[in-house]
Write a structure and sequence with these properties.
- By secondary structure, this protein is an alpha/beta fold.
- The chain folds into three domains: 81 residues, Alpha-Beta Plaits, CATH 3.30.70; 81 residues, GMP Synthetase, Chain A, domain 3 (2-Layer Sandwich), CATH 3.30.300; 172 residues, Vaccinia Virus protein VP39 (Rossmann fold, 3-Layer(aba) Sandwich).
- It is 29% helix and 31% strand.
- β6, α6 and β7 form a beta-alpha-beta unit.
- α7 packs across α8 and α10 packs parallel to α11.
- The longest helix has 15 residues.
């Protein structure tokens, strides 16, 4: 039964099927399709003698009479089947005949999905074709309602970037789901990156029960809220200076029902720590890679006198990005009259440009 055996290493499902001799196979398939009996969710299987056609359900008496009228020999039985693999059309497939090979080679290699919004990078040579690309993205990804093209880099105190709608609904707000949490976000008003999903989970998983966490640059709350969802006994102070991010942060705290564990605070992280949070934290999250180095002193102030853990993020374009980040953090901690006791982890989170990396250093500070 070679055709059936091919799927033994994959997920198999048992369902009703039509078993017919191979010499009746072509006719049998045509009859089953005409009668709308075939279950297209599963692959047709075969062995040396028989064809096995998955059916939506056991045929009725009327359907059995019709099958007997067309097929001199068959059997209704149960069999194991592989599910059909539904291939998602790619941009290259959809645009291969529209764009020249040179332009096809420049198509976006990755797409960020935030809720029902797709975000793509449009290179200068593709600028005049961006609307065609937007429509192709909508066709390739059925759950997408809006396609945005990035216009410029992340900039400003609030880390915002401009977007242009190149397909679908004219909007920048959506609802994004990640690790069982729900996040309301407006990409034009707040910073949010789905590429940090692993970091959100990794850091939240490291938090211990009973800890107090200060999230210095909380945004709409992905680190803070997931931490609260994962742990029964934590207190998280989620700070952000952007009023729009603060609005969504409060909304997301309520939607995810973590009001008892997450306290949203609007303001500059250094000022908030100095006024309210000195010596309270077991752990500080510093995901502001452009400027986190300037806030290490505030993070050290937020930590308890006996010390704690800092998750420090920065952008690095040196030949040794992890070593550079570790040294910069060590020196900044020492200037704050603390010491970096131990590096728990240093890793490249992602590449953001040629030879430029988003890195994280988890450090124990005393």
């Amino acid at each position: 039964m070679s055709g059936l055996m091919n799927g033994l290493g994959a997920s198999m499902f048992e369902t009703t099927c039509l078993k017919i001799p191979k010499n009746y196979g072509e006719n049998g398939l045509a009859v089953v399709k005409k009668m709308n009996l075939q279950d297209s969710e599963f692959k047709v299987a075969h062995d040396q003698s028989y064809l096995y056609v998955p059916l939506k359900s056991k045929p009725s008496d009327t359907e059995m009479k019709e099958l007997k009228r067309h097929l001199p020999e068959f059997e209704i039985t149960m069999q194991m089947f592989l599910k059909q693999v539904k291939h998602q059309p790619k941009l290259v497939d959809l645009l291969g005949e529209t764009l020249s090979p040179y332009l096809v080679a420049s198509l976006p290699q990755s797409i960020d999905f935030v809720g029902d919004i797709a975000v793509v990078e449009i290179t200068p040579e593709l600028e005049t074709h961006k609307m065609v690309i937007g429509e192709a993205v909508l066709k390739a990804h059925k759950r997408v309602r809006t396609v945005l093209a990035r216009s410029g880099a992340v900039s400003g105190v609030f880390r915002l970037r401009a977007f242009e709608v190149i397909g679908g609904e004219a909007k920048t707000a959506t609802i994004h789901k990640e690790h069982g949490c729900v996040f309301y976000v407006d990409l034009a008003k707040t910073y949010f990156s789905p590429r940090l999903s692993y970091e959100h989970s990794r850091v939240a998983s490291m938090v211990g029960e009973g800890e107090t966490v200060v999230d210095m640059f909380a945004g709409v709350g992905p680190f803070s809220i997931l931490t609260a969802k994962k742990h029964a006994d934590v207190q998280v102070y989620a700070i952000d200076v952007n009023p729009d991010a603060f609005f969504f942060l409060k909304k997301n705290v309520a939607v995810n029902r973590v009001e008892a564990k997450v306290m949203p605070i609007l303001g500059d992280a250094r000022e908030i720590v100095n006024k309210k949070l000195i010596g309270l934290a077991d752990r500080v999250i510093m995901n502001l890679p452009e400027k986190a180095i300037d806030y290490v002193d505030a993070a050290c102030q937020a930590l308890k006198p006996e010390g704690g853990i800092v998750h420090y993020y920065e952008f690095s374009n040196t030949q040794q990005p992890l070593e550079t980040a570790r040294l910069r953090l060590t020196e900044a901690v020492e200037r704050s009259n603390r010491r970096l006791e131990k590096v728990l982890l240093a890793r490249i989170v992602r590449g953001i440009a040629p030879f430029t990396y988003h890195v994280v250093v988890d450090a124990e500070i005393k």
